[in-house]
Amino acid sequence: MKHLSFITGSAILALTLVVAVFTFFQANEEQLSLSTDLQYRTRVLADSLGESVGPPYRAHATSSVQKIVDRISDNDRVAGLAVFDSNASLVASSSALSAGLADMSLVASVMDSDSGSGAFVSAPSGRVYVFVSPLHEEDRVVGALMIVQSADYIDEAIANVWVDNLTRLLIQIILVGVVIFALVRWVFFKPLSRMVEFMRSVRAGEAGSEESNGEHAFLLPLASEISRMTTSLQHARFVAGQEARLRLEKLDSPWTAERLKEFIKAYLRDRPIYVLSNREPYVHQKEDGETAWSVPAGGVVTALEPVMEACGGMWIAHGSGSADKETADKDGKIRVPPDEPKYTLRRLWIGKRDLRGYYAGFSNEALWPLCHMAHIRPIFREEDWRAYRRVNGLFAKTLLSEIKGVERPIVLVQDYHLALVPAMIKKSRPDAQVAMFWHVPWPSAAQFAICPWRSRILEGILGADVVGFHTQHY
Fold first, then answer.
1. Distance between CA 81 and CA 148 in Å, rounded?
2. What is the pLDDT of residue 333?
3. Is the CA virtual torsion 424, 426, 432, 435 positive or negative?
4. Cβ contacts of residue 147 below 8 Å, gap of 6+?
5. Which residue in 124, 141, 209, 318 has its CB near the most CB atoms, within 10 A?
6. pLDDT of the residue at 69
7. Strand boundaries in 269-341, DSSP class E
8. What separation, in Å, do the N-terminal and C-terminal C-alpha atoms of the chain show?
9. Comparison of pLDDT for 424 and 120, the residue scoring more
10. pLDDT band at 454, cuts 50/70/90?
11. Where are the beta strands (DSSP E) in 183-277?
12. What is the enclosing helix (H) or strand (E) of 78?
């Protein structure tokens, strides 16, 4: 989605820049055209008015000049008229003419140069164009005529250019954004996503359809190559499986993922495997607002993760990550490994009080120093033991709910955190084949005798069909 937004945003930005540059030049061209037209029309008007105002002005008929000025000033575009004598003194002017517009310096300059001149000026009523033309008597300059024309319509026209183009830009952005979004999503991303899913399923050893990969012509060459690679991979897996079956009877041959799969097929008849441990194989944490996963360090995960990846099944463990709940479904389940799912992880949610008594208390302050012959005395608390039993019961109850309807499930219980679980499972499901591995040293009889609940722990462990220890001595 980030890539799609980046592509759409880049296209919209490029379109906006093009329209902005085009509108800038169009507005400048429009302004130049309208300004030139206004200057031309004002000059023509000045020549015409000079012929009307000249005779009464030269005859010193000031009242007649004023009447002509008032009559012409009724034009909407003409903001004001004024007539000046040879001393640049005002002779007649329209009532609408602002005193600030009667620029004497411009009048004097025009009469001195005997050439009409104009300028755009900002007035209280808006922008105007002021043009001054000299009045002649024979060959002498005897005065000047000033015409003031409104230039607001030029600014309005420029504003309309920007508004019209920006409106069109907005419509284009919406259309282009929708088209690009749909094009990239449905023509590019969707077929590529399907192809990625297909390749992932092939890599995971699952059946996949190759037909969907050729639905777009531009992907046909890539789909063809992937089809060849898929065929080669399936052939290699078939050969590996054949070789693994031949090695099943050879004790000295190395264990591989393929050999594990063949072992499950040959000896366990593809029966589902369930692993129970305190620590989960994958933890999801919140880091800087983002969710990230990691594999915790530890012998249990290191030993069992390859088995579960090769054989599939379910791993039941305590969900300890800050983002574990939001990444799992309502039952606490999530497919793992995250980048290539091969089995299901079911997370259990243990309350803080029970976790403190079961894990920090009984497991780490009682059993761990007892088993490791540490130089600190184990601490046995009744409340820790009760929490330990409750959490073991939660693990057993969860496992029993998962194996309903499953015939002769294989259950692998891990380590001293879950010593009571095997007997709990066997009590409800005698047909389940339960194995337990004790991942820490086993204490001597004298050491173990100091544990108040030693009999309960032994009964729990001996509920398993097979119990594994590190050494023959244990």
1. 6
2. 95
3. positive
4. 42, 45, 46, 49, 78, 80, 81, 130, 131, 132, 133
5. 318
6. 74
7. 273-276, 283-287, 290-294, 314-318, 333-336
8. 56
9. 424
10. very high
11. 273-276
12. strand 78-85
